[in-house]
Amino acid sequence: MNAQIFNANPTIYVSQKSSRKSRFEAGQSLWVDDDDDDDEERSSDADVEPIDQDEIFELIRSISDPEHPNSLEELRVVSAEQIEVGDNHIVVEFTPTVPHCGMSTLIGLCIRVRLLRSLPPRFKVDIRVQPGSHQSELAVNKQLNDKERVAAALENPSIVETIEKCIETAESSRRV
């Protein structure tokens, strides 16, 4: 891709476990709501597995930065607090390491592709730059959430190759 490095010396943070407990850590089932023990009352159409922000964060935290050998979590580009989960709507905000980061659109595409591959198709996903964190915030947000622009970007073999390299670490970290 581009040989220019936008942030040659990023700050790298040690991964810290969130003080919030995930559903798993809280002893709740990750698959169904255990409060309802009557299986006969459940219908297969009504069973929709809930997804929380910790699960979304787990999917994207280990995506590699396009410029550096570090994860988005290590660079504090993404965090669980920047994720909102509604019924069938997920909003992920990310924070570029520098306000003029030319890799912001590529990072957003990596997050989008990772989530599209991992989540059920019922979810609408919006990817946004954290307000005030990028000098071209509106342009980046428009690029990342316009279906035609995303589709055009994903037809470019060079962009797809870079995305595959970045999300390869996220996909391999989920295999245990």
Automatic annotation (TrEMBL):
* InterPro entries, alphabetized: FSCA_dom_sf, MIP18, MIP18-like
Pinpoint the MIP18 family-like domain residues. 54-127
Region of interest (Disordered), ranges: 15-49
Comp. bias regions, Acidic residues? 32-49
Q: Where is it found, in Gene Ontology cellular component terms?
A: intracellular protein-containing complex; iron-sulfur cluster assembly complex
Q: Does the keyword Zinc apply?
A: no
Q: Which UniProt keywords apply?
A: Chromosome partition
UniProt record, GO biological process:
chromosome segregation; protein maturation
Extract the Pfam families matched here: FeS_assembly_P
- Member of which family? Belongs to the MIP18 family.
- What is this protein called in UniProt? FAM96B protein
Tell me what organism the protein belongs to: Boletus reticuloceps
Q: What is the lineage of its organism?
A: Eukaryota, Fungi, Dikarya, Basidiomycota, Agaricomycotina
